[in-house]
């Protein structure tokens, strides 16, 4: 399974944070990527951060191609300018999209104390469940940051699947799903490149890296 991560689409409507600038993809490029994904059941599309462009640009382009995606929403940003409102999250749900938790305040989950981690993993999830009126059982780690403690808390919390940003491919049924962040430089050829990086040797090296990361 190849998991793709999108953040903002189109022209950014606000000043972007440091690393965020490299993750906004213009609408044309986004649509070209979707065209390459259409008809492939080995590619999963995800969106992080709950930008308003999820609904303005992402949703119509997905719907036009019969594609679905999982949208990882930051609960504490709901209704803020340039981000999704609760009604827009429900619009995504009604269109057959899945909603996942991307935490409360968009901070790295690694290194948080117990109370802060609880707010990110449990309270934010509860808020999102109230919005969609259904269980939210998938999460995506902000900044792709996690460690053994975060993994333990997510497992105890009963999350069905957790998405990282570790690149490469992931087993379809794996609990921890590596994703590939799409940048303005990515296009349909990126899908081929990810597959090539996922040769048996590359996968073994990746697993060794992950094992270290998970236990850090
Ligand atoms: Zn994020």
Provide an overview of this structure.
With 216 residues, this protein is an alpha/beta fold. The protein has one domain: TIM Barrel (Alpha-Beta Barrel). It has 7 helices and 8 strands. It has helices spanning 27-37, 53-64, 86-94, 114-132, 148-156, 188-197, 200-214; strands at 2-6, 43-48, 70-73, 98-101, 138-140, 161-163, 176-177, 180-181. The strands form 2 sheets. The chain has a 5-stranded parallel β-sheet. A 3-stranded parallel β-sheet has the order 5-6-7, with no helix packed on it. The chain is globular. It starts with a strand and ends with a helix. 37% of the residues are buried.
Characterize this entry briefly.
This protein is of the alpha/beta class and 216 residues long. It is built from 7 helices and 8 strands.
List the helices and strands and how they pair.
Blueprint: E1 2-6, H1 27-37, E2 43-48, H2 53-64, E3 70-73, H3 86-94, E4 98-101, H4 114-132, E5 138-140, H5 148-156, E6 161-163, E7 176-177, E8 180-181, H6 188-197, H7 200-214
Parallel strand pairs: 1-2, 1-8, 2-3, 3-4, 5-6, 6-7
Helix pairs in contact: 1-2
Bound molecules: zinc ion.
Q: Can you tell me the CATH architecture?
A: Alpha-Beta Barrel
Could you say which structural class the secondary elements and strand pairing correspond to? Answer: alpha/beta
Overall shape: globular
The hetero molecules present are: zinc ion
Strand order of the largest sheet: 4-3-2-1-8
Total strand count, please? Answer: 8
How many domains?
A: 1
Specify the biggest β-sheet: 5 strands, parallel
Low-confidence segments: none
What is the percentage of strand-forming residues?
A: 5-15%
Evaluate the radius of gyration.
16 Å
Order of helices and strands: EHEHEHEHEHEEEHH
Number of helices: 7
Compute the average pLDDT. Answer: 93
**Terminus-to-terminus distance:** 26 Å
Q: Helix share of residues?
A: 25-40%
CATH classification class: Alpha Beta
CATH homologous superfamily label: Glycoside hydrolase/deacetylase
The third-level CATH topology is TIM Barrel
């Amino acid at each position: 399974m190849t998991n793709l991560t999108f953040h903002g689409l189109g022209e950014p409507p606000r000043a972007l944070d440091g690393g965020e600038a490299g993750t906004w993809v213009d609408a044309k490029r986004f649509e070209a990527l979707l065209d390459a994904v259409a008809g492939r059941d080995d590619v999963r599309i995800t969106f992080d951060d709950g930008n308003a462009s999820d609904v303005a640009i992402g949703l119509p382009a997905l719907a036009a191609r019969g594609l679905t995606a999982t949208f990882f929403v930051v609960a504490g940003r709901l209704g803020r300018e340039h981000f999704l409102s609760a009604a827009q999250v429900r619009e995504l749900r009604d269109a057959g999209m899945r909603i996942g938790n991307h935490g409360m305040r968009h901070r790295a989950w690694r290194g948080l104390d117990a109370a802060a981690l609880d707010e990110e993993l449990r309270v934010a999830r509860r808020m999102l469940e109230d919005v969609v009126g259904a269980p939210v059982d998938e999460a995506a780690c902000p900044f792709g940051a996690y460690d053994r403690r975060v993994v333990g808390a997510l497992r105890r919390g009963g999350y069905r699947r957790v998405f990282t940003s570790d690149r490469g491919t992931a087993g379809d049924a794996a609990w921890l799903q590596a994703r590939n962040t799409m940048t303005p430089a990515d296009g349909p050829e990126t899908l081929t490149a990810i597959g090539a990086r996922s040769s048996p040797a590359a996968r073994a090296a990746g697993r060794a890296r992950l094992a270290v990361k998970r236990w850090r």
